[in-house]
Every structure is written in structure tokens, then in C-alpha cells.
UniProtKB/TrEMBL annotation:
Annotated catalysed reactions: a 1,2-diacyl-sn-glycero-3-phospho-(1D-myo-inositol 4-phosphate) + ATP = a 1,2-diacyl-sn-glycero-3-phospho-(1D-myo-inositol-4,5-bisphosphate) + ADP + H(+)
Coiled-coil ranges (or none): none
Protein name (Swiss-Prot/TrEMBL): Phosphatidylinositol 4-phosphate 5-kinase
Organism: Arabidopsis arenosa
GO cellular component terms listed in the entry, alphabetical order: plasma membrane
Matches recorded under PROSITE patterns: PIPK (PS51455)
């Protein structure tokens, strides 16, 4: 059909002038809608395609590429408010590399995704502030650098527009603070270097945060500063939170005039950190009075610890003391020679993780469609095994993969399928958590077993390598374990979700168990303890203590006071679980305890001054708050009647029990409210509120440390672990008794109750009964 030119007016008032093909616009043409919108440019079979210019009746205009009636390709959009975007488009939304200048002269230059900043980008505010780094869904996320107009600079991690994770804050006056943040507030340990002191290299810090060969940042948002005991001054750390409200153009077949992007961009100008520099803090003045006047003050730095922006302790130390030298975050340590699996390094470790994911995907996919039934004795037997060979090129039963050939063995698949359902785990979610594209992360082992630990990408599951003897213990105890967890939904004993073995092509066998992560929570875990009720060797050298170090019995400096009914429920279950372990002749188990500290509630108003408050006003206010604090108990937690629709009732990877009742709320089921943070369901071992009372311990090495508070609100997480060590020989019993300061003559294989009695007695001291 020949091309021709012509004009046509439509009954609705629209008008077209230009080339047509048949009855459809094709080629160059101009179309005017009745509402005043005008397009002039290329057409293809009745659709806007090619180069063109579109002007809306509102005054907005776009000039650039079109495809199939959509803004698609490269083009420039000028909005009615005079903001201008020039860059890539996809289906009417900004997508790809682009630059936008806002009507208030703010400027963003970087990557976009579905109309929002996403990826690497730079945002400059008209007031002189500038951020360079990663974005996600229109907010600053992951690694980024923020420089304020006053000269302050933050280099570290972000989440949803807030500083979150490890970072370094450099003040315009030359002071430095290395530490961790949580939702915009200092939360955790860090080191403060006053102006003029010897400071670590910022380049070294930045290199530790750089991306690896895959392009992903090595350090996660949860990574921590590698320091010993860190103390902190009172600081208000507020963050820049960038919010985008966008009503994007729709992807429908309607008129182009209906697809005008209408964006509102709002920013909150970030105030600088209100920080008492150097000797302005109370503890610094206290220690300064005892120092000789000739001491070189340039060598003094401050180890600090914050909780939600509030100072809890500070230690003065020398910047030249190598034992206290701050180290930037680093990659997970390589497995040492003492490890059970010394060969798992580099490429071999990658193959092992890939094989594990392939095997679990195969196991879950095969067993899930099988109709559920009650387990039989044969499901626990030696023949209850599934074996499969995974060649690299694939087979009739297995997919091709990029790893090496390996054999897979799945133990008691029907039993663990039923356990996962008993623990209310969805099979698809379980498989995606472990076998998804994000992969597994190797984490350092807190114990001496030499086992390797992997963490799923969503932190829900921990995978641990097992010795052959540990595997044998687990399989022997499995029938009683299945019965115990079925009878006691509130059990604190570790949840097992699967046991597997991989045989690599050179013959090496690696055994794994999949467990629930007790510390999978939206709250930050500030302290971790492994408690056995012993004093023999149960301490951690101070030089080895880092923020995520699992501490031991003698390191615990608190006792915890709970609601009457919460405590009764806790010890009722501890007795039941210990009796179960006694029946299996297992005595060397531990209570893994995790603590989330809440900042003293009465200081929040004092420590969060208005944005316009001066540094001097902030400092004086903090001093007044410290003077008042000692006589007021903390009130940072609140128990309220349980409302299922107000909390997340989905089962976690570690717990599936009922909601607990509290005496203080009329013996009703309760939720825990953390003001400004969350509302959580209270279950045994999870989200349990308590007051932590600091025990006074004389320690000459701590003479330079000031504890600013004696009582804290805490949220407690706990579970019983290390239950795969079966002591069934006299030699093993004597060795264990010696390490735990027992008399081997008073304990036998038939009377493991002595261990559990001491274990429970110790916990009674940790969680004392109210008098």
C-alpha cells in the first residue's frame, strides 16, 4: 500500500496531519489531542515509534526515542515544575543511566530502575551536601559516601536512607569515629580519635569495603568494627532519609496524554552528629584529672559503645597501644589447619556450597510431593537413605551444573520432611532460602570443633559440617528427638531440618546438618554468650573480644530479671529439655544466649536535640542527663496484650511455640513493644523482655573504664546447643569432668543428671527469682 499525506479530524476533536499508510499514521506526522497534548515525530503502523517530541497540556514535554507508543530509549523530559531528566527510558519510566536536575537545583546523576534511583549514583543537594554510592528503590542503600556542606564526611553502609552497618565518620575539625550504626543511630562498638591524635588510614578502611571480583561488596551491612571493649560518648546521630513519591506513567493502551510522570521529590536536610569531642565527656574529665601534665594527649583515643545513640561505656586508651589498635572490617577468615575440613579453601569451598545447594534442592523437590504420613520405625533405619550421583553434564535425574562430579546422600528424608512441617516451614521458602541465587555465606566458628558454618542469605538457617561421630549420635538420637519436639512445641533444643553427606570425586566425604538460626531477628544482637555452668577455662581473653565474639560463663557480667510467668515458663522447659538430654547420656551442652540492649528510655528526649541546637547546647544537655540518670530505672520496653493482627505470627527458623503469658499483664498472652522500633510476639527463647543488672566485678585492667549505667532493658534470645557430643566411655567422661571441674568419681555414664543439675543451678543465678 502506498504512503500518502493527508489531514484527518476525528469525532472526539483529535486532529492528525502527516503521512499515512492505509488508514493508520505511518512515517512523519503530527497528532493533536483535544485536551491540548501534541506529538510531532515518527509513526509506525499507527503507533508512536522512532524520534519525536511530545508536549502535554500541563506544560511538560519530552523529546527523544519512542517505541510502540511508549517513551522508550533515550530522551529528555521537562516537567511542569521545570525539573529536567535526561537519560534512558523503558516503557514510560526512567530505567538505566540518567541525570535529573530538580526544580530546587538538586541533582542526581546515576542509574535508575523502574523510575527510582537504583544502583550507583551521585546526589547533590543545593545546600552543598553530596552523596556518592549505591541506591535501592530510591533510597541510599549499601556502600556510600556522604559529605556535608560543613565538611563532615561519612563513609560506610546505608539502609533505606539511614546509616546502617559499619562506617567511619570524619568531622570537619579532624576528629574521626570508626563504628557501627543501626537505623541512623550509633549502635555498637567504635573508636573515637580526637583531632590531632594519631589516626588510622582512611585508605586502608576504604579498601576493606571495596567490591570483590563478582562486583558485590565484600562487607555486609551487618559487619562490625573489629575492636575490643569500645566505649562511647553521648551522641545524637540523625540521618538523611531520602523519600521519593512518584506517580509514574502507566503501561496501558490509552492515550499518550494520560501518561505524564508526576513526581514529588522530598529531602530531609541532615544535621551533623552532636558529639562531645575529646575531654568534654564526663569520663574523659575524670581520667584526665589523674594524668600527668606532661603526658602526650595526642596519643589518647576513646573506645566507646553505643546503644541506639546513647553512651553506655567508655575506655580511655593510648593510640599507640597495638593491643587496642582498631582494625577495619575484613573478609571472613580462611579456614585454618586445625579445621575439620582443611582442604575446603577457595575453589573447593565454592564447589562444596554449590553441591550442597544442588543436593538440598533435589531432596526437597523429591520428598515434598509424597503424601504426608506418620513416620515408621523403618524411616529411622539404616535403609532410610536416598543416594544420587550428580555428574557435571547432568543425567536423566539431575540437572547439569558448574561444579565437579559428586555423590549425594540424604539421611532419613521422610523424618526430616515431617520435622520441617512440624516446625511450620514452607518447603518452597526453605529451598529458596538455602538454594537461591544469593548463595551461602561462610561464617567463622565460635568453638574449637573445627566445623565450618554457612549462613543462608536471609540469615534464617545455619549449615554446619559434622564429624562422623556427631552424625552417628544424631542418627541414634533421632527417634527420641522426633518424639520430644513433637510433644513440646516450646523446646529450646536446636531445630534440625536435614542431614546430608557429599562425596566429592576424589573420595572426600563431608557431612552437614541444617539448623535454625537462633539470632535471626530484626533486632541487633549486641552480646552473645555460650554458657555451660562452669568456670574452668570459661572466659575470653580481652584482646580477642570483638563485637560478634561469642563470650563464655565468666565473661557474663549481668543477671536478668524477668516477669514471673515468663521465668516460670522458661525454667519449666529447661527442666524438660535437660531431662531429655540426660536420657541420651549427653552432658556437654550449652545455653546460647543473645542479648539486644535498649538504650535507657529516659535519655531519649535529652539526647535528641532539635536540628538547630548548637554543639555547646547539646553538650550541656548531655551532662545534665547523665547526672539525672542514675536514680531512674529504664523504661524502654512495654508488654501489652497479644494482638495476632498487629505482629508477625509466621514461624521463625528457631521457634514455633505458643505466645507466652505475662503476670504483669493479667496473665494474658503478650506482645513486646519497643518504642520507635517494633511490636514483637513473645515466645519462649525469642523476644523475651528482661532487665539486665550489671554485676560489679573488680578488675584492675578495667580501671580506665566507666560504666555509665547499671540497669538496662534487654530482649533475650536463647536456645540449647551442642547436643551431639555423646559421652559413653569412661575416658570421655573423665576428660569432660576435668574440663568442667567435676570429680570423675562422682559422675558416671548412668548419672548424667549431675551435669544438668549444675547447669540449671547456674541458670538460676543468671535468671534469679524475684523476692
Amino acid at each position: 500500500m502506498d504512503m500518502r499525506s493527508g489531514d484527518r479530524e476525528f469525532p472526539n476533536g483529535d486532529f492528525y496531519s502527516g503521512e499515512v499508510k492505509g488508514l493508520l499514521p505511518n512515517g512523519k506526522g503530527k497528532y493533536a489531542w483535544s485536551d491540548g497534548t501534541i506529538y510531532e515525530g515518527d509513526w509506525d503502523q499507527g503507533k508512536i515509534s522512532g524520534k519525536g517530541k511530545l508536549i502535554w497540556s500541563s506544560g511538560a514535554k519530552y523529546e527523544g526515542d519512542f517505541s510502540g507508543g511508549y517513551l522508550h530509549g533515550f530522551g529528555t523530559m521537562t516537567s511542569p515544575d521545570e525539573s529536567v531528566y535526561s537519560g534512558a527510558w523503558r516503557m514510560n519510566v526512567r530505567h538505566g543511566l540518567g541525570r535529573k536536575e530538580y526544580s530546587n537545583s538538586d541533582l542526581y546523576d546515576g542509574l535508575w530502575k523502574e523510575g527510582l534511583q537504583d544502583g550507583r549514583g551521585s546526589y547533590s543537594w543545593t545546600n552543598g551536601n553530596r552523596y556518592i554510592g549505591n541506591w535501592k528503590k530510591g533510597k541510599m542503600c549499601e556502600r556510600g559516601v556522604m559529605r556535608w556542606a560543613n565538611g563532615d564526611l561519612y563513609d560506610g553502609f546505608w539502609l533505606n536512607g539511614f546509616r546502617h552497618g559499619s562506617g567511619v565518620y570524619k568531622f570537619a575539625d579532624g576528629c574521626l569515629y570508626y563504628g557501627t550504626w543501626s537505623r541512623g543511630l550509633k549502635d555498637g562498638k567504635g573508636v573515637f580519635y580526637p583531632a590531632g591524635s594519631k589516626q588510622p588510614s582512611l585508605k586502608k578502611w576504604s579498601r576493606s569495603l571495596e567490591s570483590d571480583d563478582t562486583g558485590k561488596f565484600v562487607l555486609s551491612r551487618s559487619a562490625s568494627v573489629n575492636v575490643e571493649e569500645l566505649r562511647s560518648l553521648n551522641t545524637v546521630t540523625q540521618s538523611l532519609s531520602v523519600k521519593t513519591s512518584a506517580g509514574e506513567t502507566t503501561k496501558n493502551s490509552g492515550s499518550v496524554s494520560d501518561r505524564l510522570p508526576d513526581e514529588i521529590w522530598r529531602t530531609c536536610d541532615p544535621p551533623r552528629d552532636f558529639t562531645c569531642h575529646g575531654p568534654l565527656s564526663k569520663s574523659a574529665r575524670f581520667f584526665g584529672s589523674g594524668q600527668s601534665e606532661g603526658q602526650d594527649r595526642n596519643r589518647i583515643v576513646y573506645e566507646r559503645e553505643y546503644m541506639q545513640g546513647v553512651l553506655i561505656r567508655e575506655t580511655i586508651m593510648s593510640s599507640v597501644d597495638r593491643s587496642h589498635k582498631i582494625k577495619p572490617p575484613h573478609r571472613p577468615k580462611e579456614v585454618r589447619a586445625r579445621s575439620l575440613l582443611t582442604f575446603l579453601r577457595g575453589e573447593h569451598n565454592y564447589y562444596l556450597m554449590l553441591n550442597l545447594q544442588l543436593g538440598i534442592r533435589y531432596t526437597v523437590g523429591k520428598i515434598t510431593p509424597v503424601p504426608r504420613r506418620e513416620v515408621r520405625a523403618s524411616d529411622f533405619g539404616k535403609n532410610a537413605r536416598t543416594k544420587m550421583f550428580f555428574p557435571r553434564d547432568g543425567s536423566n535425574f539431575t540437572p547439569p551444573h558448574k561444579s565437579v562430579d559428586f555423590s549425594w546422600k540424604d539421611y532419613c528424608p521422610m523424618v526430616f520432611r515431617n520435622l520441617r512441617q512440624m516446625f511450620k516451614l514452607d518447603a518452597a521458602e526453605y529451598m529458596m532460602s538455602i538454594c537461591g541465587d544469593d548463595g551461602l555465606t561462610e561464617i567463622s566458628s565460635p568453638g574449637k570443633s573445627g566445623s565450618i558454618f554457612y549462613l543462608s542469605h536471609d540469615d534464617r538457617f545455619v549449615i554446619k559440617t559434622l564429624k562422623k561421630s556427631e552424625l552417628q549420635v544424631l542418627l541414634r538420637m533421632l527417634p527420641k528427638y522426633y518424639e520430644h519436639v513433637g510433644d513440646h512445641e516450646n523446646t529450646l533444643i536446636t531445630k534440625f531440618f536435614g542431614v546430608h553427606r557429599i562425596t566429592l570425586k576424589w573420595g572426600k566425604k563431608v557431612r552437614f546438618v541444617v539448623m535454625g538460626n537462633m539470632f535471626c531477628t530484626e533486632l541487633k544482637i549486641h552480646r552473645r554468650y555460650d554458657l555451660k555452668g562452669s568456670s574452668q577455662g570459661r572466659f575470653t581473653e580481652k584482646i580477642k573480644i570483638q563485637e560478634k565474639t561469642t563470650l563464655k560463663d565468666l565473661d557474663l557480667a549481668y543477671e536478668f530479671h524477668m516477669d514471673k510467668l515468663l521465668r516460670e515458663a522458661l525454667f519449666k522447659q529447661i527442666y524438660l529439655d535437660c531431662s531429655f538430654l540426660e536420657s541420651l547420656n549427653i552432658i556437654d551442652y550449652s545455653l546460647l544466649l543473645g542479648l539486644h540492649f535498649r538504650a535507657p528510655g529516659q535519655l531519649h528526649d535529652i539526647l535528641e536535640p532539635p536540628n538547630a541546637m548548637s554543639d555547646q547546647e547539646s553538650v550541656s544537655s548531655v551532662d545534665v542527663g547523665l547526672a539525672q540518670e542514675l536514680s531512674i530505672p529504664p523504661k524502654g520496653l512495654l508488654l501489652v496484650t497479644h494482638e495476632p493482627n498487629s505482629v508477625n505470627t509466621a514461624p521463625g527458623p528457631h521457634i514455633r511455640g505458643s505466645t507466652l503469658r505475662a503476670f504483669s499483664v493479667g496473665e494474658q498472652e503478650v506482645d513486646l513493644i519497643l518504642p520507635g522500633t517494633a511490636r514483637l510476639r513473645v515466645q519462649l527463647g525469642v523476644n523475651m523482655p528482661a532487665q539486665a543488672h550489671h554485676k560489679l566485678i573488680e578488675d584492675k585492667e578495667e580501671s580506665a573504664t566507666i560504666e555509665l549505667f547499671e540497669v538496662y532493658d534487654v530482649v533475650v534470645y536463647m536456645g540449647i546447643i551442642d547436643i551431639l557430643q555423646e559421652y559413653n566411655t569412661k575416658k570421655k567422661v573423665e576428660h569432660t569432668c576435668k574440663s568442667l571441674q567435676y570429680d570423675p568419681m562422682t559422675i558416671s555414664v548412668t548419672k548424667p543428671s549431675i551435669y544438668s543439675k549444675r547447669f540449671v543451678n547456674f541458670l538460676h543465678k543468671v535468671f534469679p527469682e524475684e523476692r
